[in-house]
Specification:
Strand content: under 5%
Number of domains: 2
Number of strands: 0
Largest sheet: none
Helix content: over 70%
Radius of gyration: 25 Å
Order of helices and strands: HHHHH
Shape: elongated
Distance between the termini: 80 Å
């Protein structure tokens, strides 16, 4: 083997090892970032659930509903922002469609951003909803504007 071929193989080997080390370090950093983000999300969800239960148990049903509706609106905007509908997973599309149906029955306060996002979401087939959500939507329709919303 000539000296230049041997040197080339050593350089190639070092390049591959450097690439793999960089990949591993980058992957580990990304993993840590994603896990930190998920940890924050779980902590936030837990706090919201405890707050909602505390409001319900202290008789503040309207406050609990308002708190949950605000959470729905924030999640709807966060899931849909800067993402075309066709590029969203079926699970994300389904979650957004459920939020749209809920907000059709129980409209949000005048929040232009939520309204803008909801306008872009297609209406789902009501048959795809859980029995509880279907019942709630029917009750919202029957109770009309006197309830939290006008119904669908």
């Amino acid at each position: 083997m000539t000296k230049s071929v041997g040197t080339g193989l050593v350089v190639l080997g070092l390049t591959v090892v450097s690439f793999l080390v960089g990949l591993a370090v980058g992957h580990h950093g990304t993993f840590d970032w994603v896990m930190g983000y998920l940890q924050n999300e779980v902590e936030g969800n837990l706090t919201q659930r405890v707050e909602t239960l505390a409001r319900l148990r202290t008789g503040d049903e309207a406050g609990a509903i308002s708190f949950l509706e605000d959470s729905i609106d924030r999640a709807t905007v966060n899931l849909a922002t800067n993402r075309p509908w066709t590029e969203m997973s079926p699970q994300t599309q389904n979650a957004l469609a459920w939020a749209k149906l809920y907000r059709e029955a129980f409209p949000a306060a005048a929040d232009a951003e939520v309204t803008r996002v909801l306008e872009k979401i297609p209406m789902p087939d009501v048959r795809d909803l859980s029995p509880a959500v279907r019942q709630l939507l029917e009750e919202g329709s029957e109770n009309g504007p006197g309830r939290s919303g006008g119904g669908i």
